[in-house]
Amino acid sequence: MRDLSKLHDGIDISTWHVRQHAENLIAAHECNASCEISYALLKPQDLAKTSTGLFDVESPAFATTFLTFRPEEIHSLLPGHKSLDSDGITSYTLKKVLRMGSIDMAPGDIVIDNVPLAVLTRHLTIQGMKSLGAHHGVNMLSKLSKAVCSRALEGHRCNDCPTLHFVFSPVVPVKKARANMKGDWIDDDPTPLLWESDLEISTEPWPPLPTTMVEIARAMQCYCAELTPDAVEESGCCVCGQLTWKRSLLPFHEEAYDLSLLEEFNCTRLERRTPDDPICEIKGPVLDAKLTDICPTCHDSLRNGRRPKMALANKLWVGDVPDCLKGLTLAETTMVSRVRFNRCIVRVAKGHFKMHANVIAFEHPSKKIYERLPMPKEELAEVLSVTYTGMEPPGDDDMKRTPVLVRREKVRQALEWLKLNHRDYADLSIDFNTLDTYQLENVPFGLLKSTTIAEGGNVLAATKSVFQNDDEEGTHDGPCPFSVSGITAERHTTMTTSQRKVAAIQWLKNGGSSLAIGHDKKSQSMFNNSALYPQMFPWLYPYGYGGVDQDEHTGHISRENHITWLCMYYDKRFQMSPSTLMVMFNHQLIHQSSKGSFISMKRHNFTRVADAIQKLDPGVLLAVSERLKNGGRFIPKTPEEYRCSKLMDEVDVVGSHVDGSLAKKKYQRGQIWSLINFLNAPSWFITISPADAKHPLCVHWASQDVVFKPEIKGSKERLQLISQNPVACARFFDHLINLFLKYICGWSDDGPKRGLFGKPAGYYGAVEEQGRKTLHGHFLVWIAGQLPLHVVRERLMSEDSEFLRELTEYIESSLIGEFMTGSKEEVSARVPYAPDSEDRGIHTILVDDSNAPTDYVDPTLSLPEAPPPDFCDDPTSCRCENCLALLSWWERFKLTCDDILIRSNVHTCFEQKSKKDSGDPETTDAAKKEKVAKLHRTGKGCLNKDGVCTARFPRDIFMTSSVDLETGHLNIKKQEPTINDINPTVTVCNRCNTDARFLLSGTAVKAVVGYVTDYITKGFLKTHQIFATMYETFKKHEDVLDIAKEERPGNGARQMLTKVVNSLSSKMEVGAPMAALYLLQNPDHYTSHQFVPFYWRNYFNYVQGQWSNFLDFAEPVEEDTNIIPEDVGIARTTRSFIDPSLQATKDDIRTELGVDLEDRVSAGVGIIKVEDQEDDVIVLESGGGVSSSTGEPTVAGMRCCRYRLAEKSDRRHYT
């Protein structure tokens, strides 16, 4: 209606008009000569089901909405109560409904005109009621309950309603053979249970053969081939705008396609320069004129005469971003946005030379829509505040480098352009008087807090790893980069401005470095509003088109796929807006929790759950929280505590649909344990921490470059690019992990092949965030043919020298604990440290690089070197040119590995700052001064109060591999105490800190699995905090559980579950790269196997119910009535069940009696055989009948009982 009003003079419908008001304005309008002529394109409508989801009364689908009618009901409806032949008829079904015309009737059919609505409503579904109401002119809203719809129909009085003829058909039951009720899962095969026949039993030798130089070279050939420009360069598709591998793109020729498929009305717009320019669309097909190629998916669709699903013509066009909207700072985007969605506190930290910033923001409780922009300084000060930490108070130049800089002319140009071109800014009023109160270029508000430090860098201790030794991060000049991460608690939406600022300062003081988005109280308002994001982020949607949740996308393009499409848009505008990604991710979490609650509501037991939630006393949640907080345990005993437990279960059910939730992580923990149960203990544990800010591929994807030039960029440029593009970080991490799994582990699309650790049997990797919000992965790898751990231990302790030699060679070929070319001191002396390429002005530090080779390249900033393309299988004995080149490459490989280790893997212990501050600064003791020297500038320390390193350094040294004959533990050679064990190929390929460990003992496996599962389920909340959060949610939203306000039964409980899950997920701290990972729909865990959930509780309840029913029919023996029964397997079949273990007894009975147990006899039962064996007693009873032919006693009605005497199991008879 807003679009329609723009074509007619005198109608002004804005975004805040309600629908009824807009309808009244349009209805009252009379067109004149100035109104533009508009055309409506109509298409035939399927009367079977209208777009509103209602059925036409004459359609067959409408007849299916009726339940069956009893014969007496049909008899009462017949004129004059005519007699009805109902012999054998159990009910009547509605065959069809007709308005007029001839009626085709079958024998026995009955036609009744105008059946009373009161009768029909008793047999109609809610959809049928609404369809029938539409026929009678009774309008029913989609959210009305069935009871309300029924009352509306019963209260209707037909005056001019068309006559309806109802045709009823009789239902005569047909006797059918009794179906076999035995479930498919019941195993009635008497043979012993074995593994599936198609389960391949590994025949791989173990230990595997050692990894050779040739295998490493071949793996790196394939690995490096995936990092060449031909493999990683991308460009956009002119039809869908998506980034696609350049090697896959095809030239776009207009004459080769039917371009009419790409024409669409009202989804594009030409740029206007002046207010007098008309509003015009782009004529012709909707294509991106800057691009000249087409992706294979769009090519195939157009060649087959179909519009591609993700084509720009499907209301996905967003337009080019003008220069005036590019490069806006955080403060400037706040001033041009019509929808205010958060409040921000910016922390600016400056060390000796570098500056960087972090932002924490709290979402505004309501989406405020501005009619006039920009906002006054006073209101902007409520939205943005700054804290500063540095060596000295900040100057004007320092503040201008922060994200809160405001350039008045930049804001003026942006607002004027948006008013001309953005379809939701046409009615915006620009307040030039308020804009003139801002300075030309300055921060428009004072500091919230300024802290001066005497010494030290600007790296927060909470974000440092144990291997990071840098004092400072950031840039020396220009705009300082700022990181975006985190989601804070929902409680911030109710804070005052002062309370929010205090909380933000405390967060930043404790090491927080995040842009945090809280949850709005009314999450539903975030959805089904296609104008929300264009008004919230106008610098990304310059024309207001292409918003999420458009009506045209319903059923075709999901919200998740649309956001993924935005993240992969070819100009990377959405990738380079971290705040936008965090808002989208936050909304996605709320959407998922709402969806999960509706799914939970459909479960058959939700009625009981809703009743438990309605009756739950919030005080019990608080009491349980306090008990757990004080170290107690929670074992439900009272009815109220059982309701709390039930609530926890349902929160897990709903939370299992939410990305990154505790419930979803619990499922991942179960997957790891099930994989261990299926494949035995894992063989390897590997950690990979890709350095996204240094790797050329990540820097390339984060930039706007199309051509990949793996050249080293300056640290300033690299940090700016990486901090602004978390999508590139998430894509880069996923790419490296896939290369690791495919070429190093050997798990390819064609199945597992021998990798550098042997032939893999499976893998499982969990993705985790580090303190600085970069991604790294922990992987468990299973090797085919691995022996059970106790067998390995026994063979090691038996002094099997051949087995020990093979195992040692295998491990040492894949695992090292020292440098490859010398000692730590020798490597440190050899590795050159090139001077910083950044010019610091008068602070430039001159580094002696006289010993550095002219062609030296820092390996952590470069791509791995590929080996020669051709070489022999045994290069050490062959001296051909290719093999000599390979040997030369191998020597460079070892030097590179040591270079990376000395830069990224060496651990140095530091004293904690809190301990240092408590000492006497005036002391002159030499030992004290040596201890003071161990204090890191950032305050990050690893030594506890006892002087022990919490990172477990230094490690034990073993000059050679040996076996401890007392414990059976194999001590692998390790000659360097300050580094972790690593795999050289993993380190050289990833150019970063890595870790590897071979698992030999059960204790090691348990420790590693516990470590990994702790990471993937590492909670942002403890159990007592979860209960406290649920208590706060119940107290805050008590009115939700008001039954009188429920639209349908159980809806209040569903809404409460949604709010509890939202409250829990709002306390997650998620970095922008992890949020981008979820928005890209990349996995947060990598696994080789598929998992099927097994709902143990449902299975247990079913078996318990069947066992209880069985006991009701069983005949207990008097002396055993108080004995607890043993678990017994029961097969429900229509034939007699004979345990295979009784075959010998059956043969004995046949020998003694001369008849089989299955022979039929007459009634009358007597015991004919009681056989005592070592463990079992078998009681066989038979009728005392006589065979009609032989006169011999026969066995029939046989009953058998088998039970354990030693365990005194209950004796039951099985008929």
Automatic annotation (TrEMBL):
Residues 304-435 form the DUF6570 domain. It comes from the Eukaryota. Residues 565-781 form the Helitron helicase-like domain. InterPro entries: DUF6570 (IPR046700), Helitron_helicase-like (IPR025476). This is Helitron helicase-like domain-containing protein. It comes from Ephemerocybe angulata. The lineage of its organism: Eukaryota, Fungi, Dikarya, Basidiomycota, Agaricomycotina.
